Amino acid sequence: MSDDFLLLNPGPVPLSEPVRAAMDAPMVSHRSAEFEATYERAQDGLDEIFTASTPSGESTGEGTSLILNGTATMGMEMAVSNLVDPDDEVVSLVNGKFGRRFARIAERYADVTRVEADWGDSLDVDAVAEAITDDTALVTLVHNETSTGLLNPVEAVGDLVAEHDALFVVDGVTSIGGDEFRIDDWNVDVAVTDGQKALAAPPGISAVFVTDRAAEQADGERGPFYSDVEWHLRKADQHQTPFTSAVPLFRSLAVAVEEIHDEGMPNRIERHRRQSEAFREGFAALGLEGFPEVSGPTELSNTLTAISLPEAIRGDESSAFFDAVKERNVSISGGQAHLGGDIFRVSNMGNLTADQIARGVRTVGEALGD
Ligand code: PLP
């Protein structure tokens, strides 16, 4: 891979030199004091990111960050499976690939009602209000829908969840670490994020934040053996994981969250907002249209941008465009599932510079002109 390769996919994202270097150190036991110190550094950083991702940096929640050997799908499954019984009613909100994934996971463990909108459309909050009742045990929602570039209304849904005293499990995989996230104010019980996204750590490691209320309900008798929340909480007290830890990934994560601490979440949120705006404005100046339809409390993502391909190069015709981007040593993503060939997506998650954002726009412009 040459030095000027620019990775703009919505995960994995580019790594800083110190984050990469952290993986290349002599191995230690996952039961050693050295490893426990690494776990503690990563956990301290995550606690701050989960609870104080606000524009002014104030704290919005209390609980425990658990670090997992595995990508965020493992965290999503851990969150749901430890909190429901098979006859419990779950409401899953679906307006993209990852909302659908959450529903599919929940369907393995409980009785699920889906509230759906077309991928790229905003969720209808009135329909959500109708679906959540006093019988609802748990609600799943993806905050930042990576497949479409929509920022779903966690606060509005969280108010409805709280009215019915249900549990609220939120996928913040492509928002947490780059955008605002408010645990208590939004009534979130469990939040999930991933190393490889806005945290700018390598893929293969993820984290869940378990509030004390959710912890009380995780009794160690439900869910997959490997993802037992109660067991993970007990081991996290000792700065360990129940099973062998992916030591190099934990080391990288510790450095990545310290870099976030050094930038400061308020600055990081502001920078991500500025950079996503720059992407949107740049693509608009090329005559391109944004893909998602925003209405109600839904907003456009601040961490990734989805753009409709011009009619003339949709479907099979789109491969020449994607090839032309690739030839310029830039990596972007197409649409997922049925959106393949209709849209492209770029991420501004992590630690990109203004020059890299500008290069992304310039490259798309050149590729369209080819
Ligand atoms: N949730 C969202 C919103 C995502 O964007 C992703 C990855 O792209 C995931 C969950 C987790 O996916 P995986 O476990 O395949 O890394």
UniProtKB/TrEMBL annotation:
Lineage of producing organism: Archaea, Methanobacteriati, Methanobacteriota, Stenosarchaea group, Halobacteria
Essential cofactor(s): pyridoxal 5'-phosphate
Similarity annotation: Belongs to the class-V pyridoxal-phosphate-dependent aminotransferase family.
UniProt name for this protein: Pyridoxal-phosphate-dependent aminotransferase family protein
Aminotransferase class V domain mapped to chain residues: 27-335
Top-level division of the source organism's lineage: Archaea
Any one GO molecular-function label of the UniProt entry: transaminase activity
Keywords: Aminotransferase, Pyridoxal phosphate, Transferase
InterPro entries: Aminotrans_V_dom, PyrdxlP-dep_Trfase, PyrdxlP-dep_Trfase_major, PyrdxlP-dep_Trfase_small, SP_NH2Trfase/AEP_transaminase
